[in-house]
# Entry
Amino acid sequence: MFKKYLLLCLILFSIPTYATTPDTPEPIREITITIDDLPFVGTTHNKAGNLRRERDRFIRIMNALVDNKVPATGFVVAGTIEKDQWALLEAFHENGFTIANHTYSHPNLNRSSAEKYKHDIERADKVLTPLMKAGQTKYFRYPYLAEGRNGTKKEVKDYLASLNYTIAPVTIDSKDFRFNEQLLSIHWRNRAKHLNRIKHRYLNYIWRQTLKAEKRAGDKPVKQILLIHANLLNSHALADIIQMYKKKGYRFITLDEAMKSKKNNVSL
# Structure
């Protein structure tokens, strides 16, 4: 009996709650999806078969958003756009999603000079500007979430401001690369057998990360910003992620809406 009572307490206390009164409705939880490393993680070396597979996986990710009417922002590594992949980014843009800057070559600012990094940003900016909506907020996200140190950090931040970029933070990091590596390590003929097991563990991890983010917010609802990547795993799992959040009572919003919350100004 005591064990059952203890289990019930653990379940109850794992669910985020917000302070309300009998006369105030329960706050609506809100979240936005951001996808890093568009067009797709990795390289195809412009081989026809690889390009076809990446195209199919990209479209699967995009369709999960379209079918569920969920807004999203895609952060593009401009130097990784391969043969015919510009059309994929155009389709992403034309479906109402936001294109954002994730540098040209995905450098780590903690290991780069400010000058080289600024040049990388500028190259990406020139490539991606045609895909940015007129009047949209220009978003930038640091690769590896590495913001640099000391003078380098300030110099790059000031440079981004001079180009009218807003730095996009993260409140929920899916760490999806860990699970994607597990899936990729399985021979492609056998992946289908293991996909549901890996997806189950991945979704559980994202939810635990979400609970941590809600706990950090205390008793106030925060507009959460989820980080995932354009990879094999999410081509299979994004629709499940969306349904999980819907079942948990979340409403999907744009990054613009999420950034209205001052609490989202720090990346995690």
Residues 28-261 form a domain with the TIM Barrel fold (CATH 3.20.20.370). The first strand starts at residue 29 and ends at 38.
